[in-house]
From TrEMBL:
CDD domains for the chain: DNA_BRE_C
Protein's UniProt keywords contain Thylakoid: no
Protein name listed in UniProt: Site-specific integrase
Disulfide bond as UniProt keyword: no
Species this chain originates from: Sinomonas terrae
Domain Tyr recombinase per the UniProt entry, residue ranges: 150-303
Domain of life from the UniProt record: Bacteria
Keyword annotations: DNA recombination
Gene3D superfamilies, A to Z: Intergrase catalytic core
UniProt xrefs under InterPro entries: DNA_brk_join_enz, Integrase-like_cat_sf, Integrase_catalytic
Length: 303
């Protein structure tokens, strides 16, 4: 692919232009632009996947898309696939961003598509077909938080799992103990899954206004949720309950040393990495299922 300043040209020689190759170039260029804006690789892959989903659904390339193609795609997502309001809105945002990039004259993709295929890119997500976002929360009305009784049952069952593994002679008691502490930590300090799994022992510090909490009066969250491609947003969370301090102190004193020394991560694995998000969510679902909580009635936990 030859390059002239900021303009990219797709050389096909005397052969007929290859639409798949050209689309790949556009998507690769879009990926570079997003990386330059510091978007996460997972976000870039998701956006590319949504664009390709619309290509496959419509049977058309992006420079051939119409408003009708977008209407059919999003209508199918809601009416047939039963995707949530928020998910469809995020899909629309991804397609809108792609079209904005492809239509931008600074990248010259429209000029190239006109020369190669006789058609140009157009914005197909507009105020005419975009889902409105008028509420601060998009949670479904049927969702509700755990009650205090349910939370206590959940934590008790997580603790019981450790005893059951020990009594059976199976391996995995330490991992079960770690998971039980992780669930309580997520609740005690109001953490998201990624924030939780990246915690380290040094993230705790004293709170001068709550000296009775010792060295665990404040939790410094360094892997907070980023916003629009920015870096991770750090925040500090004050400790509320003394029981959470006792729990963490016991884990640091008696649990972490079993993984070997030195241990800096609060929730490590036996292999030396940090516990995976999918593992924690899977364990949480297992506990909820065993307790017989109504399916679909509980909000997604902080874990």
């Amino acid at each position: 692919m030859a390059q002239d300043k900021n303009v990219l040209f797709a050389p096909f020689g005397g052969q007929a232009p290859d639409p798949d190759a050209f689309l790949g170039m556009v998507l690769d260029g879009w990926g570079r632009q997003q990386r330059a804006k510091d978007f996460a690789s997972a976000t870039i892959r998701t956006r590319r996947s949504v664009v390709m989903s619309l290509v496959d659904f419509s049977g058309r390339y992006p420079w051939e898309w119409t408003l009708g193609d977008a209407d059919d795609f999003f209508s199918h997502a809601r009416a047939v696939r039963n995707l949530s309001h928020g998910t469809v809105r995020s899909y629309q945002g991804h397609i809108k961003l792609f079209c904005e990039y492809a239509c931008d004259p600074h990248y010259d993709w429209c000029e190239q598509s006109a020369k190669l295929f006789g058609q140009v890119f157009a914005q197909i997500v507009t105020e005419l077909n975009r889902v409105t976002h008028a509420q601060p929360s998009e949670a479904r009305p049927a969702k509700r938080p755990f009650t205090q009784r349910e939370l206590q049952d959940l934590f008790d069952l997580a603790d019981l799992e450790v005893e059951r593994i020990l009594d059976s002679g199976r391996k995995g008691a330490l991992a079960a103990w770690r998971d039980a502490i992780a669930f309580k930590t997520a609740y005690g300090w109001g953490l998201r899954a990624n924030e939780l799994r990246h915690l380290q022992v040094v993230d705790f510090s004293r709170n001068a206004r709550a000296p009775y909490l010792g060295d665990h009066g404040v939790l410094r969250v360094r892997w907070g949720k980023s916003h629009r491609g920015s870096a991770k947003k750090p925040r500090s969370v004050l400790t509320v309950w003394p029981w959470s301090v006792e729990m963490i102190q016991d884990w640091i004193r008696n649990g972490l040393p079993r993984y070997g020394h030195p241990v800096t991560d609060l929730f490590p694995t036996s292999g030396g990495s940090i516990v995976g998000e999918s593992h924690l969510i899977g364990r949480l679902r297992d506990l909820v299922d065993e307790l017989g909580f109504p399916p679909g009635e509980l909000v997604k936990s902080s874990v």
